[in-house]
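Please check this record.
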Amino acid sequence: MFKWKKKRPAQKETERKIIINNNDLNKEFGYADNFIKTSKYNVITFLPKNLFEQFQRLANFYFLILLILQLIPQISSLTPVTTIVPLVAVLLLTALKDAIDDIQRHRNDNLVNGRISSVLRDGVFKKERWDKVVVGDIIHMQSDQFVAADLLLLSSSEPHGLCYIETAELDGETNLKSRQALPVTAKLMDNKALEALKAEIICEPPNNNLSRFEGTVKIEGDVSPLSNQQVLLRGCVLRNTVWCYGVVLFAGKDTKLMQNSGKTKLKRTSIDRLLNYVIIGIVIFLLSMCAVCTIACGIWESQIGIKFTVIQPWDSFVYKVVGRDARASAIAVIAVLVFFSYAIVLNTVVPISLYVSVEIIRFAHSFWINWDREMVYKDIPAKARTTTLNEELGQIEYIFSDKTGTLTQNIMTFNKCSIMGKKYGDVTDEAGEITEPQENTPLADFSDNPEADPKFRFYDKTLLKDIKSGDEGCDRLFRLLSLCHTVMPDEKGGRLVYQAQSPDEGALVDAARNFGYVFLYRNPTHISVKIKDRVWEYELLDILDFNNIRKRMSVIVRHENKITLYCKGADNIIIERLANTPENEQLKVVTNDHLQAFASEGLRTLCLAWREVPQSEYDSWKKRYKEATIALEHREDKVDAVAEEIEKDLQLIGATAIEDKLQDGVPDAIASLAQADIKIWVLTGDKLETAINIGFSCKLLTDDMREVFIVDAEDAAGVRDQLEKAKARLTNPESPALSPDMEMNPRLTKSGLAFPVNGDAVVENGQLPNGGGGGNGESEACALVIQGKSLVHALTPVIELLFLEIACMCKAVICCRVTPLQKALVVQLVKKHKSAITLAIGDGANDVSMIKVAHIGVGISGQEGMQAVLASDFSIGQFCFLKRLLLVHGRWSYYRIAKFLRYFFYKNFAFTLCHLWYAFFCGFTAQTVYDPWFISFYNLFYTSLPILALGIFDQDVNAKNSLEYPKLYTPGIRNLLFNKRKFFRSMTHGVATSLILFFIAYGAFHYSVDDLQGTQAFGTALATILIITVTVQVALDTAYWTVFNFVTIIGSVAFYFALTLFMYSSIFSSSYLGSERKVYSSPAFWFTLVLTVVILMVPVVAERFFLIDTRPTLSDRVRLRQKNESKLKRSQTQLAAFSRPSVTPSARRRKNRRSMRSSYAFSHEKGFGDLITTGTNMPGGKESGSVRLWSKRARQQRNQQNDSYLPDMFPVEESPEKEMQEVRIVGGGDVVDGPVASSRVPVQVTSL
C-alpha cells in the first residue's frame, strides 16, 4: 500500500507542534526544510519564465506582433528574416545574461546550503549539509559556529545550561547576549541522553519578531514555558561556549532571519520604466502615421490608381475578398492592407536593438566598477552583482544606511581622560596649540608592560609618566576601570583577551591593562588585578549593574578590611550623587569643562567616582538589598531604590573619553554626498544616544543645525503630538518649543526635546523657504531622531504621511532601535510616496530586507557575514567607496545611457521618417526608399558600434573632478539628462533631419528618378548621406575620445562603403546592381552630401557655441578647467575657495562641536552582573571559587580620517536645457562666467 505524504495545510499556521526524536511524525506536518533559495530559475522554468519576463518589455512584445504580421505575404513588403534575426538575437543575449546572473545566485545558495552541521542520526552525531537539516533534528554546535536554524537550546558546556551568542547578523550588535536552557534539559550531556529524550514542543507559528518567542515543552508529563531566552536564531554565532545542543524549531524560509529578509523582487531602473512609456508613445505615433498613409492611399487609389488597373490590376487577394465589381470596397481593402504594410515598413521607429544595446552598455559599465582599483579594500574589490541597474546609481536621492559595521568599525578606543582636574590625551604642536595626531606623531611607550596591546595608540606621554610616579588620582581612576565592569577574561594565542558586553566597556578595561592595571580573572567572590608586577586580590561583595534607568554601574569590593564603592556612569547622574564638599565643587567645574571639550570632539564620555563605605553602613544596606532582590513584586524598582541609598556622597575622580572608530573616509563621503543633494537616513538597531554621537562624528549631524528633534513616545497619540510639534517648529520657529526648557543637550524623555540653535524656519531638506529668514540653508538645517518603539506608530497609515513630511523637511534622519522589518518599511514608505530613487547600504543580515526593498541595494563585505552582500546589487569593501560608486561610476553611467538614448532615438527617426516622405511620391504603396538589406544592417552594423563606444567610454569630466565637484551629480537626481522633454527634443531633431535630408537629396536627384535605375540611385544616395550625417553627429556628441571611438566612427563609415560596393556588385543578383557606381561617380552627389551635412550640423554647433558662451553649466566650467588646467594655475587659489579641499596629513587645529555626552552608559547593555554574583556563569558555581576565563576576538583598529564639510561650489541651473551641454569651446580672451575663472584667461579653441 502506498502511504501518501500529508500535505501542509493550506490555512495559515496558528501554532507549531514538534516531537523531538520523531522525524517521521514531524514530516507529516509539512514544515519547511532548511533549504535557502535566492535564485529565480531552474533548468525547467528558465525558458518559459525568462521569455515571459522579456516579453513584458513592450518593445519585445511589439516585435513579436510585427513578426506575425510579416508572415502574411499580402501585407508585408519585407522578408520576415529582417525581424526574426534581430529579435532572436536580442532574446538570446538577454537570456544568456540572465542565466549567468542566476548561476551566480545558485552558487551563492550552494555556499550557504552546503555548510556543515553535526546532526543526531540514529544515536550518533553525523555531518550533514544545512539543507538536509529538518524540524525536530537535534544539532551539536561548537564555539564560533553559525547557528544553522532557529533552535531551542537544550544544554551547553557551561553551568546551568548557559551559552553566549553574537547577533550581529540579526540586529547589527556585536556585543554578546546570553541564553539559558531550561533546568530540565540542561542535564542532557551525551548522545544517549539526547537520543532517549521524548518531548513535545508547542510554540508560535513562523513570524518575524526577533525579540519574542512563546511556547511550551512537555517532558515526562511536566510542562515548562519557553521564551526568547531559550532560543538561538539562525544567523547568530556561538561565542565563549565550548559546545551546546539544540533542537530545530524553524528551518529555511520559516526562520526569523528569512522572515525578516523580504522577497526578492525584479528591479527595473527608472529609465526602463520611462522607456516603456516612450515606446507606447512611439507606437501611437507609428499608428498615427499608418492611419495617415491609409487615408492617403484610399484617396490616391480612388483618384489615380483606379485608372491604371487595366495595365496593372490589383492583387488577386483583393478580388477574392470583395469581387471584381465592388471597386469602392476593393479600395477600402487595399487601404486597410496598406495600414499593416506601413506598420511593417516604419517599424524601425521602434528600435528592436535598443534594449540589447542598453544591456551591452550596462554590462560594460559593470566591468568599470569591478576593475576600479580605487575601490579595493584588503584585496576585496567592488563588484557589480547585477548588470541592469548601473545608471540608477547616478540618480540616487535617498540613502538608507546601517550604522554598525557600515559607518563604524564597531571598535572603541580609549582616547582621552580627565583625572583630578588635569586633562590627558591632547596632542600639541610646538606653539602649544592642540592639533590632530599624524602618522609621524610619537606614541607613548608601553614597551615595559608585557600585557600591553601593541595596537593601542596613545600620544600623551604625561599620563604614563604620572602613573609611574605614583599619582594618587591616576592610580584610583585606573583601579576603578580594572574593577568596575562585567568583562570576562580569556587567553588566546598566549595573550590575555577580554570579552565585554559592550565595546565601550571592553575599551576601558583594555586601556587600564595598557597603562599597567591588568584585570586577570574573576569568580563570583573575587577579582584579581595585576598592578606594577603585584597581583591584588579584591573580594567582590556586590555588583550594582547598569540599566537604562540607572545609567550607571557600581561595584563594592573589600581589600585589607576596607570596603570601597567604585561607580561610573553618565556625567549628570554621577554629579548628582557627589558629596557636597569644596574639593568636589571645584573639581566639578574643571571636569565639566573637560567633558564639554571631549564631547565637542565627538567622543563618548562618562564620569568616575568612588567612596569608602563603613562596615556598619554596608551591613545595614546589605540586609535591605537582599530583601529587595527576593521581592516578588516590583523587584527591579526596589533593587534600584536600595542601590540609590549607597551610591551617594561620592568623591569625583574624573572622566574618560572613548572614540567610536568610524570607517576611513566616512565623514568626507557623507559630506560629499550631502553636497550632491543626496539625503542620508541612518537606520540602526543601536540606542538613541549612540546613533546621535555617530551622527555627529560622521558629519551627518552638525553644530550648525538649528534643532535635532527626538521622537520617543510609546503610543500613537504621543508620536503624533511630537511630530505635530516638530512640524510647527520647522514651519514657524517662533512657535512654542517641544518642551518648556530647551537645553543644549536633550534629555531622553517622552517630551521630544531638541537642540536649540539660533535660526529660522526650515522647509525642505533642511533649507529655508524662498524669502524666509536669514542665514544660509545649512545653518538653518534640522534633524529628526526617532526611536523604534515610536516608529511602530509612525509607520501606521494614519501617521505615516505626517512622519514622511517631517522627515523630508529635515536635513538628516536617524531611526534607532529599529528591527530589520522596520528598516524595510521606512524604505518602502519613501519609495511609495516620493518620486525618488532610493539606495540601501548595510553589511549584516539585519539589513537584507531594506536592501531588497530599495531601488539599489549595496552590501559591505564586512565582519558580519555575507548575507547583505548576497542580497545586494552592488558590493563594496567600505562605506567611503559609496562616494566613488555614485559620484563617478553612477554619474558616468547615467550620463552615458542618457546620451546614448538621445542619440539612438534621433538616428532612428532620421532613418525611418524618410519612408514617410517617400510615400507621397510612390502613391502610398508601402514601397521602401532604401534597399531591404540596408534596412536590416542600419542598426545592426552601420550605426551600432560608434554609439556603443560612446555609451561605454564617454565622460564629460574625469573621476578626479567628479569627486571634487559633487554638484555635478544633481542632474541625475533631477532626471535632467533623459526625460520626456529630452525624448521629444531628440525626436524633433530626427524628424527635421529626415525632412531636410530627404528633400535636399530629392531635389538634387529629381531628374534621375524618372527611370527605375534612378530610383535605386536615389535610395543609395539617400542612405549614404544618412550614414555620414548620423556618424558626424555622434562624433560631435563624443566628449571623451579614445582609440575605440576613432576606430568605430571611421571604421563604420569605411565598412558601409565596403559592404555597399560588395553587395551591389555582380556577385549578387541585386536590383541595386551598379547603382553605387552611378552615385559615387557623380559630382552632384558629393556636393549634395557636403551641403546636407553642413546644413544639418551648423545649427547644432551654433546652438552649443551659444549655450557654452552665454549660459555655461557647471559641467562646462569644470570640463574647461580640466582641459586647460595648465593655463589656470594662476586662478587655482580662487578655485580652491569654492571646492572642498581633501584632508592633508599636515597638522591642523581641532574643530570642536556640541555632542551628546555620557553616551557610554546609554549604549551599554545590561551586563553579566547577576550571572557573576550568583555564580551561574562559573564552572563550579558560587561555592567552588574556581575560575572560568572568557575570550574576545581581537579586532583590528584603523585610524579615522575626518574631513571638513564645506559649502557647495556652484549653484545648479534650474532649466533642463542648461544641463550638461556637450560643446567645450570658449573663444580666446572670453571671460568664463562663474567661479571657475573670474579673470580673463586666454583659452585655446579646441575641436568638437
